[in-house]
Amino acid sequence: MILSTHEGSIEYELRRPEVSKGLALLLHPHPLYEGTMYNKVITTALQTCVKNDLSALRFNYPGVGNSSGSFGYGYYESQQARVLLEKLGHQNIDWVIGFSFGCWVTYQLLSYLSPSKGIIWIAPSIHEGVMQSINWPSKRYIIQGTDDQLCPFSQNRLFSQKNNFEFLSIDQAGHFFHGKQIELKHAIQRCLND
Fold it and tell me: pTM of this prediction?
């Protein structure tokens, strides 16, 4: 679907289960490296949310697919997320789930909204910028592959320890979780039902 705003258009998808118990916002990986809302990790997260009775909202960042604009280093992307939520009438959300660069976008969003349940970061690219200590949601998780070459396991485990994230590792999984989608689905489900 396409949402028209005064700044341009935002391409999005809102998937709902038969009976929705809440809303999860899904944030995709880096748009300059072919990241889109149709990324298979984000698609796995969307399917897992719907299976667990959560509506799931994903959108293409500015300049991706049919969304207008250009890359904004996480700041413009988080602004577009806020515009989308406001225009769709979703002032309160339960979860924010980010993958890779999408975790940096999540971090920017946390200055403006506080998900009622928590955040789930999948292979976060914590090197995108300086993450200061903030008022984190009480429930926060990192799901990380042990063989991730882009966002190293040891770096993200250390970050999780310093910031009190629950850390879930997936053995022999690389950054894109090739061949590990079932394990990823189970890890997301565990976070959602914790």
Answer: 0.96
